[in-house]
Write a structure and sequence with these properties.
Number of strands of chain A: 17
Number of helices of chain B: 12
Distance between the termini of chain A: 69 Å
Oligomer: heterodimer
CATH topology of the domain at 386-563 in chain A: Jelly Rolls
Radius of gyration of chain B: 25 Å
Structural class of chain A: alpha+beta
Strand content of chain B: 15-25%
Distance between the termini of chain B: 49 Å
CATH class of the domain at 386-563 in chain A: Mainly Beta
Largest interface: A-B, 109 and 98 residues
Largest sheet of chain A: 9 strands, antiparallel
Strand order of the largest sheet of chain B: 6-5-7-1-8-11-4-12
Number of strands of chain B: 16
CATH class of the largest domain in chain B: Alpha Beta
CATH architecture of the largest domain in chain B: 3-Layer(aba) Sandwich
CATH architecture of the domain at 386-563 in chain A: Sandwich
Shape of chain B: globular
Order of helices and strands of chain B: HHHEHEEEHHEEHHHHEHEEEEEEEHEE
CATH superfamily of the largest domain in chain B: Alkaline Phosphatase, subunit A
Helix content of chain B: 25-40%
Structural class of chain B: alpha/beta
Number of helices of chain A: 34
Radius of gyration of chain A: 34 Å
CATH topology of the largest domain in chain B: Alkaline Phosphatase, subunit A
Number of domains of chain B: 2
Strand content of chain A: 5-15%
Chain lengths: ~900, ~500
């Protein structure tokens, strides 16, 4: 009885508890989430008229303080806690069509109205967009246990690391199962292409396929991460972001030697340079203490902007265009945010004000580059011999010069900076900027350099071409007929640019410097006498009269004059050349508004304490752990590179207009770990990704997963993605054995059809590279902006005119034509055929079998083998009696010139075109 | 069912249907070899919507069938466009903008009022005025003034509408050309032809939808960017058809491979791919199979359409073609053939119109006259030929340069040029349009007495773009593409349809 009572009591208790639980469940209403529920309605229905550019009726929903302010009508649109008196609610619910909002558009649905009412009732809290909130540590999701979570969860065998918990959690939610691990061969090819951009070398492949140990895969991953090809593959990705090209762009589109930046990237990735340092050096390497050459070269990141060499162009206009491009690229590449809109108006959707764009631009606006033909400032690359001389010179200056002089001389010798570019001259009389590039004097010429700081200056170094003997060049101060500072005579005529030095009497103050010019040997008023590139007012080389002076000065002159390879770099103006920054009204650079100082948008993290207000401070801000965007952007990008789609699909825009991430918590988890545990190591991040079970899944598509997850956004299967433009080429070369392993150096010109380059006003030519340079990896291919390499552009390579955050993959017949017919691929097919013969003897079937294995690491199925063998038979039958065709197919009269090999070339060409070859399974 | 489930179900159904089609089309190559065009692949597959995860925020982009024919926003008057760009900018003052007053001013110093605050590409200091270097007459029923440089064109002025007051804000070739074709003077935006193929797809699946032909020995100054796809998927970039080498890059089978062998190899590739599909069930494989089929057919249809030798002799005479040469007349005949075959946008660039006077070829009184001769006959033939084929009504023909030329004689860097020439001029120039629902024998816009500036009916490249899109059935303000977080359009934030010249 007692027992019975007890059971009854238990029953009652359970019932009671259950009722309470139900009550709680049904009465506890979820609060409205601003970002998830409210913001989408505002963005879709309100913001076009009430936000950013337009604020009809004085109402804007862009920022909370604006939305809660009194509108033009004197009413408050939103009164927190009081929807019934909020004008907004009245206007969206009224029946009067003239009054009802959205004006002349579909009314809001009842559900939408209720959300807005409830939100106001709850106090109209403003939420922050997920991507603008600093990254916090995220807990790995707990697996749901069985029986409504009453039983503890057991870890499924599928899960390998923390990434998988996030993926599994979501799959469970959608009632989907993950796919099993792909077979070893598939995995081998996949991870090798992903990490190095190339198929695995045969030796490594064999090692892995025969390694039965449990850590075989990890060993493989570690080898691939340590391969020098790793750096090439990831540099290739970064080149799109850096809008790297080997030409300057615009009409002339002349060559630019900036490949050392590409090599810097390869080294940086191979060395696993921590990402915070990687960014810092690219944004502000020149501002680091005693920058190395490599750190200077890193800043070429932002010298990949275009330069306009066309005559008649306004250099300031294109300098400005380059600076704007640096701003937009910094945001898009490093912070996954579209900032360009703010150039013209406050962002209608994201929390950035118009003037904030120009404050941000001010970080970049005070640089030395001025759209010059030579792309100044340049880093001059010294040989080790030159460096010895440099040491002698700087030691000398250290000893005899003013305290800060040796650093200045060092910088000057390494960069010829900070010289005054002659294109800054004005007030021309019988003089002008030749081709709007260089100051040129005719007879009786006058020109001015404005506001030159001449304090303590007693020396002038200038770069010039002297056309005609007899030049008489006078330097006046403040007026064309002002006091003569120097009369320059006996100026050599030169056939090319030359650098000369001049002693001057000591000067002080800031002056307008006027040049006058006369030459009795100039016959016609239109004859040119002399042309200048730049002027550098400085102090005389110190230590004159001291023993050893002659030698030191000679070394100084040798280094100064020497023709050297160069790379464009970033460098700031010295204080006396400071360039002010202004707001451009509605984005028009000619209409300058208020002046601004460098700053970051108020809605994100502030500049870190102690950060200088220059690019270095900016870099510190970018890589500060409070910056919500930097780590998320790179993690999302690396994910996209591996899986084909980012966790947030719109790599270029994590803002409110971008597509929301599928696994935001995972993105945050990885971003936090990347910064806080893995020391910004890209290799660690990649390893974590490729070690996951998520990554290792089979990519076969089941009917269920196609139905529930057609785009594989939930990752219920492995990613199956077409190879990139670079990979398509590199793989064909690798499989056929043609690939050159040579790394670094100037860009190369592999075969391309004739007539691709026909630029007016530009004599440059595609000179096909000889020897192994014709078979280098795709990233070394010379990239001309106005005529990019056709085979790669067809496979969606970015044109690199501007920063490209994401390539859109297409699938077109023109791509088929490239891999079927391009001479590069025919040559690859020939060599692949020879390789097959070489490895498998004279049995065509065996050759195909072997070739397939060499390419894809796995045995060919019989049915596929039959199809390909049939092609061989058809080709052989066709070719066996056709000497001409055989010759054409092989190309040479050599041992391969026979019908069997020719038929194998046809087979190899087909094999290189298989979907499984072009695609990463 | 939720929206998502309905959507997924549809995708699954389509995947199954396509798998089925695949089986029934097993011997497609045999069929297509027998009767070209019999297999309307566009209509067979055009309805499929296999998005991949590219996530372009647009309903118009279907990565599996990016070129499937699509309907415009409203029925357009034109089906295709032939845009004739005289790269370098021809002089309006020697062709269409008759300025007798300028005759009287010849050799006089240019008044300061015309120079103050202006920038020119090469003119420095005070240049001299230069009289029109041509004789003008009124032509046709409409009485349009056309100079003697264009005797053939003078006979068809009643078919065209002149825009005499076009202005631009770019005075250098590359940015001005980019503005005309991409709506922005900077690199990076899609060209007009890309927008059109993105919006309309292509009618003939065996030919590219947007074809570019160049003559004059050079590319336009802005290079391939004037037919680039900018931020649109690369499939929409213009395909350059060349008169030397392969008509389309890589269209020719490699040496030693005849058609049968190519057919056999594509058959084999696709058969292996089908097996791959059976194993992986990735719809992208099906798409690749159809791209290889299409590539095979393009290999026949492109050289076929690019071969003008089969045209009858009277057509050759009419156009003034030159056999086996890369010339404008051949290109213009090709343009007619291409639109006839359903190509949407044919873009011609003819280089050599930059008449500065710096040498004889670039002289307004020498080289320019030769250039006029080179194009006059063929342009006239194009209009007449399209008309006799009943194609003019649905083909919009546009002729023009990237800017105009100054009423002043150029004095490069302050010096007199050796030949007569004019500098780049942004404030007024002439473009004409014909066919595709454009008024016949009309003129819009006027310039002042010396042809320096507009005094009415001013239009910009944006207005011309808006008009072209309008004739094709697109509202240029609504025809957008989402990029970098905002919708972009060809006309950026400007442009109005020039209703005055619409029929």
């Amino acid at each position: 009885m007692k027992a019975l009572f007890n059971i009854k009591k238990w029953w009652l208790l359970t019932l009671f508890a259950g009722l309470i639980l139900l009550f709680i469940l049904f009465t506890r209403q979820k609060k409205v989430d601003y970002s998830a529920d409210v913001k989408p309605i505002l963005n879709k229905k309100c913001i076009t008229c009430h936000g950013g550019v337009r604020r009809k009726g004085g109402f804007s929903v862009l920022f909370r303080n604006e939305a809660l302010a009194k509108t033009e009508s004197g009413k408050f649109a939103i009164i927190p806690g009081d929807p019934d008196h909020s004008e907004m609610i009245r206007r969206i619910t009224t029946k009067d069509p003239e009054d009802r909002m959205p004006y002349k558009h579909e009314p809001l649905s009842t559900a939408e109205i209720n959300i807005l009412k409830k939100w106001i009732k709850e106090g109209a809290p403003w939420g922050e967009h997920w991507a603008y909130v600093p990254v916090k540590q995220v807990e790995v999701p707990k697996l749901k246990g069985k029986l409504f979570g009453l039983l503890p969860a057991s870890k499924p065998d599928w899960i390998r690391n923390n990434i998988d918990y996030f993926i599994y959690d979501k799959l469970q939610h959608e009632n989907l199962q993950p796919s099993p691990e792909a077979d070893k061969a598939t995995l081998l090819r996949r991870v090798s292409l992903d990490l190095t951009g190339l198929p695995a070398p045969q030796k490594l492949a064999d090692q892995f396929l025969h390694d039965q140990s449990s850590h075989a895969y990890e060993t493989l991953v570690d080898s691939l991460l340590a391969s020098p090809h790793y750096g090439e593959r990831w540099a290739s990705m970064w080149l799109d972001l850096a809008r790297y090209a080997d030409t300057k762009g615009y009409e002339r589109d002349d060559s630019r030697s900036i490949w050392r930046y590409r090599d810097w990237l390869i080294h940086a990735f191979n060395d696993d340079k921590p990402y915070d340092q990687f960014i810092t050096e690219q944004i502000a390497g020149d501002l680091l203490p005693n920058p190395t050459d490599a750190q200077y070269v890193a800043t070429a990141f932002h010298r990949n902007t275009m330069t306009n060499d066309e005559g008649g162009t306004d250099n300031e206009e294109f300098r400005t265009a380059a600076v704007l491009d640096r701003v937009n690229t910094t945001w898009e590449a490093i912070m996954g945010t579209t900032f360009a809109c703010v150039q013209c108006h406050s962002h209608p959707y994201d929390p950035f004000h118009h003037e904030e764009y120009y404050k941000f631009m001010a970080f970049f606006n005070d640089t030395r580059d001025e759209d010059t033909y030579a792309d100044y400032p340049l880093l001059r690359h010294f040989s080790s011999d030159d460096n010895k001389k440099l040491k002698t010179v700087t030691d000398w200056v250290e000893k005899y010069g003013a305290p800060d002089e040796s650093g200045k001389i060092r910088t000057f010798l390494k960069t010829w900076q900070p010289a005054i570019n002659s294109l800054l001259a004005d007030q021309f009389v019988n003089s002008e900027l030749a081709d709007t590039k260089w100051l040129i004097f005719r007879n009786h010429a006058v020109a001015r350099l404005k506001n030159v700081d001449l304090n303590n200056k007693n020396f002038l170094i200038y770069r010039y071409i002297g056309f005609v003997k007899g030049s008489e060049w006078d330097i006046h101060l403040d007026r064309p007929d002002g006091p003569v500072w120097k009369k320059v005579r006996n100026i050599d005529t030169t056939s090319d640019w030359k650098i000369k030095s001049l002693e001057l009497s000591p000067m002080s103050g800031v002056h307008d410097v006027y040049f006058t010019y006369y030459n009795p040997n100039l016959r016609k008023p239109t004859d040119d006498g002399i042309q200048f590139d730049w002027f550098y007012f400085t102090q005389a080389f110190p230590g004159s009269g001291k023993p050893g002076y002659e030698e030191a000065y000679k070394d100084f002159q040798t280094l100064l004059q020497k023709e050297l390879p160069t790379t464009p770099i970033m460098m700031d103006n010295p204080a006396d050349m400071h360039r002010k920054s202004y707001v451009f009204e509605r984005g028009n650079w000619l209409v300058k508004g208020d002046s601004v100082e460098p700053d970051v948008p108020h809605s994100l993290n502030p500049l870190p304490a102690g950060a200088p207000r220059n690019r270095l401070g900016l870099a510190m801000w970018l890589v500060n752990k409070q910056n919500p965007l930097t780590s998320r952007t790179i993690v999302n990008r690396m994910w996209e590179q591996i899986f084909g789609t980012g966790l947030a699909e719109t790599l270029e825009d994590l803002g409110t207009q971008g597509i929301a991430p599928t696994h935001q918590k995972l993105l945050d988890y990885l971003s936090w770990q990347f910064m806080n545990e893995d020391g910004w190591s890209i290799k660690k991040l990649l390893k974590e990704i490729v070690m996951s079970a998520t990554y290792r899944q089979d990519s076969k598509v089941s009917a269920e997963s196609l139905a529930k997850d057609p785009f594989n956004k939930l990752l219920s299967r492995g990613a199956r993605v077409r190879l990139s433009a670079e990979q398509v080429r590199d793989q064909a070369l690798a499989i056929s054995g043609l690939l050159s392993e040579k790394m670094y150096g100037p860009s190369v010109m592999p075969y391309q059809p004739k007539g691709i380059w026909l630029s007016p006003w530009n004599g440059s030519d595609w000179k096909e590279s000889k020897g192994e340079d014709g078979y280098r990896r795709a990233l070394y291919t010379y990239w001309k902006r106005t005529a990019p390499y056709p085979a790669m552009i067809t496979f969606d390579e970015a044109a690199r005119e501007v920063c490209t955050a994401r390539r859109i993959r297409t699938n077109t017949p023109l791509q088929a034509l490239v891999t079927l017919n391009d001479e590069n691929y025919i040559e690859a097919a020939r060599n692949f055929a020879y390789k097959m013969e070489n490895q498998a003897g004279q049995d065509p079937k065996e050759e195909i079998r072997r070739g397939y294995e060499m390419a894809l690491h796995q045995p060919i199925t019989n049915s596929k083998l039959e199809v390909i063998y049939r092609l061989y038979q058809q080709a052989y039958a066709k070719l066996k009696n056709d000497r001409d065709k055989i010759c054409e197919m092989i190309g040479f009269m050599d041992e391969h010139n026979n019908p069997k090999t020719a038929a194998m070339v046809v087979v190899a060409n087909a094999m290189l075109n298989l979907d499984e070859m072009i695609t990463k399974n | 069912m939720t929206q998502k489930e309905i959507h997924n179900k549809r995708l699954l159904k389509e995947a199954n249907e396509r798998a089925l089609q695949l089986v029934t089309r097993r011997h497609f190559l045999k069929e297509s070899a027998m009767g070209f065009g019999a297999l309307a692949i566009g209509s067979l597959l055009g309805g499929c919507h296999f998005g991949s995860s590219n996530g372009v925020n647009s309903t118009l982009f279907d990565p599996a069938h990016p070129l499937a024919p699509k309907l415009p926003m409203f029925p357009g008057r034109a089906k295709s466009v032939i845009y004739l760009h005289m790269a370098g900018a021809p002089s309006q003052l020697e062709l269409f903008d008759y300025k007798p007053a300028l005759m009287k001013l010849d050799g006089q110093d240019c008044p300061q009022s015309l120079l103050e605050g202006k920038r020119f590409a090469f003119i420095r200091g005070v240049p001299k005025m230069l009289a029109p270097q041509a004789n003008f007459k009124q032509r046709g029923q409409c009485g349009a003034w056309v100079s003697d440089h264009l005797p053939h064109f003078s006979t068809i002025v009643d078919e065209v509408s002149f825009l005499k007051s076009v202005t631009t804000d770019q005075f250098n070739h590359a940015p001005a050309q980019l503005l005309v074709h991409t709506g922005s003077p900077r690199l990076g935006r899609p060209s007009m032809g890309s927008w059109v193929t993105y919006g309309l797809g292509t009618e003939n699946q065996n030919l590219p939808g947007f074809v570019v032909l160049t003559s004059g020995g050079k590319f336009p100054d802005a290079g391939k960017s004037v037919w680039g796809s900018g931020f649109l998927p690369s499939v929409y970039q213009g395909v350059q058809c060349r008169s030397e080498g392969d008509p389309v890059l890589f269209i020719k089978d490699p040496a030693g491979m005849d058609r049968d062998l190519r057919k056999a190899s594509i058959d084999a590739i696709n058969e292996v791919n089908k097996k791959e599909y059976e194993e992986y069930r990735d719809p992208e494989i099906l798409s690749r199979i159809s791209q290889y089929e299409m590539a095979y057919r393009m290999q026949i249809s492109v050289p076929d359409v690019m071969n003008i030798n089969d045209e009858p002799q009277y057509i050759h005479d009419m156009y003034g073609t030159q056999p086996n040469k890369a010339c404008f007349a051949n290109n213009i005949l090709l343009a007619r053939k291409l639109v006839e075959k359903g190509v949407r946008f044919v873009q011609l660039f003819d280089w050599g119109w930059d008449s500065h006077g710096s040498d004889a070829n670039l002289a307004i009184d020498v080289g320019f006259i030769n250039k006029c001769r080179q194009v006059d006959k063929s342009i006239t033939a194009l209009i007449l030929d399209l008309k006799q084929r009943g194609l003019l009504e649905e083909t919009l023909v546009v002729w023009g340069g990237e800017f105009g030329r100054t009423p002043m004689q150029e004095n490069r860097e302050g010096k007199q040029n050796p030949f007569k020439g004019r500098d780049h001029h942004t404030e007024a120039f002439t473009i004409w349009m014909a066919g595709g629902g454009i008024k016949k024998g009309a003129s819009y816009g006027e310039t002042d007495e010396i042809g320096y500036a507009s005094i009415g009916g001013k239009v910009t490249p944006f207005d011309i773009q808006a008009t072209i899109l309008n004739q094709l059935g697109f509202n240029h303000e609504k025809f957008t593409y989402q990029f970098q977080g905002r919708p972009f359009r060809l006309t950026d934030v400007s442009g109005e349809v020039i209703r005055e010249i619409l029929a």
